[in-house]
Design brief:
This protein has 2 domains: 229 residues, 3-Layer(aba) Sandwich (D-Maltodextrin-Binding Protein, domain 2), CATH 3.40.190.10; 102 residues, D-Maltodextrin-Binding Protein, domain 2 (3-Layer(aba) Sandwich), CATH 3.40.190. The protein is 41% helix and 15% strand. The chain has 16 helices and 10 strands. The strands form 2 sheets. The protein has a 5-stranded mixed β-sheet with strand order 2-1-3-10-4. It has a 5-stranded mixed β-sheet with strand order 7-6-8-5-9. The protein is globular.
Length: 347
């Protein structure tokens, strides 16, 4: 059973009560993470184990998800109240719906997109244009695969000349096939996820070259914390508390990454400490390390940059409407800049 389905089954037992009620009179919220319990989401687990949500009067239940883009579709009224997923997929979802009816982002951690295509470092592919005439594999709901048309439009690639095929194998196995069996020329994914998945299968990360979307589409953001529109409207008073608790977990994680990994191991004792620490540090130093963070802090987004991203996604995907910036993201729930992380110089 996949993590999302397990999370959904666990959710059913507790979903009978409406948002904002529980047996302890705390605000009940159900959060769907973008992935399984692992290093990159350990700050959520640290915040929970240190009681930050409980102190805020929030009864938070977390479930594991099946991908940053996939979970965006799964957070909807009557189910999960909040999600942690890809802002680009969220923009597309909002643009396909009625105005002021879709989910709302409230705390964006990835101020640089992690989307990438891994290729053979010893091979001839060095730019997106070099992918023409070749095969690139990925999971059906992989955010990089779904946003490949945005990368292609920005780099002059003819998407019809790149065969994007769906694979049901893990990212590590796809990387092995690409390097050793030459079944494809590249693999869609997140940089740190691909490395973490391929290394246990004997792939030296030095054998991989990454074509990073951030190098060609610098306006792209990555993962964000978002809520359904009904929660946004009916439970606005709890959202600053939710964001502050998550922010405290992130700040603690930056200060002491090993504490976050210990929190992970308490809920997923079979996890590899070293691998997950590497993934966590990689996430902090790459996906959360855009220079913008020093100026406006982790959690916020630049309106002009977000506006350009919305315009690009709507244009490339020929979406029915262009959402407003304040329809996609509401910064009013953020804690003061003095409380937020501004440097990701993790130890």
């Amino acid at each position: 059973m996949n993590p999302t389905r397990r999370g959904a089954i666990c959710l059913l037992a507790a979903a009978a009560l409406p948002v904002g009620t529980s047996s302890a009179a705390a605000q009940r919220l159900h959060l769907l993470l973008n992935t399984s319990y692992s290093g990159p989401v350990a700050f959520f687990l640290l915040a929970q184990q240190r009681g930050y949500f409980r102190e805020a009067g929030i009864d938070l239940a977390m479930a594991q998800g099946s991908g940053a883009a996939a979970i965006v579709q799964e957070v909807e009224p009557g189910g999960y109240h909040a999600g942690y997923g890809d802002i680009c997929a969220l923009i597309e979802l909002i643009a396909r719906g009625k105005p002021d009816a879709g989910p709302v982002a409230i705390y964006t951690t990835f101020n640089a997109t992690p989307l990438t295509i891994a290729v053979d470092a010893a091979g001839p592919i060095r730019t997106p244009k070099d992918l023409e005439g070749r095969i690139v594999t990925g999971h059906a709901q992989d955010a990089a695969l779904l946003m490949f048309d945005v990368l292609a439009a920005a780099t002059g690639v003819d998407p019809s000349k790149v065969a994007t095929t769906v694979s049901f194998s893990g990212l590590g196995a796809q990387a092995v096939d690409m390097l050793d069996r030459k079944k494809s020329a590249g693999v869609f994914g997140f940089v740190n996820t691909i490395i973490a998945s391929a290394t246990p299968l004997g792939v030296d990360p030095k054998r991989l070259r990454f074509i990073n979307f951030a190098d060609y589409v610098p306006d792209m953001y990555g993962n964000t914390l978002f809520v359904t529109r009904d929660v946004y409207r009916a439970q606005a008073s709890v959202l600053p508390k939710l964001v502050r608790a998550v922010n405290r977990g992130l700040a603690d994680t930056v200060a002491a990454p090993d504490d976050a990994i210990s929190a992970l191991l308490r809920v997923a004792p079979g996890s590899d400490r070293a691998v997950n620490r590497t993934r966590l540090i990689g996430t902090l130093k790459t996906e959360m390390a855009h220079p913008e963070g020093a100026r406006i802090g982790i959690g916020d987004m630049d309106d002009a940059r977000l506006s350009r991203l919305i315009e690009r996604i709507v244009t490339v995907k020929n979406l029915p409407r262009r959402p407003r910036v304040d329809e996609v993201f509401d910064r009013s729930f953020l804690p003061p800049l003095s409380e937020r992380v501004r440097t990701l110089a993790a130890r």
